[in-house]
Input
Amino acid sequence: MNTIDDGPGARRRAGRLNWLWVGLVGLVIVFAILSPNFLTVGNIQAMLLASAILIILGVAQSFVITTGGIDLSISATMTFSAIGFGLAWDADFGFWLSALTALVAGAAIGVVNGLLVTKGKVTDFIATLGTLSVATGLALILSDGKPITVNSSELLDLTTTKIVGIGLPFL
Output
């Protein structure tokens, strides 16, 4: 079986991909000229660390898109999970139990999405749009619309530890 896509659209996609790389390299060059600190090791490490959450969410979303679906509630699920962590921390659950609470909160939203789509036969767009609103609303209600401060040495260690100069959250 031939798995190589060599149809007329393949050449167009390859050309578009090449232009994306040219544009990316061009932007790096412009930013490096405008700011001498742009290509420093410290700045690159900071960019990788700052992008870690977006990369995790992007990978999760790519799994959904690969199956032909869409999940609009992914950012609200992250927020709801973070509020779950903060509330558990405020209740003196400790770091690991608070982390488990956050995972359970996120999984609960995922289960609701899954049940709405598979058992309820609601289209994924509408189901995740609804759970986006519900998760955001619940997060606001539970937190009273105020930030929850978490002072945890474990969380600080998790976010600042570096392996071979690369932040642990990025790895």
Notes: The radius of gyration is 21 Å.
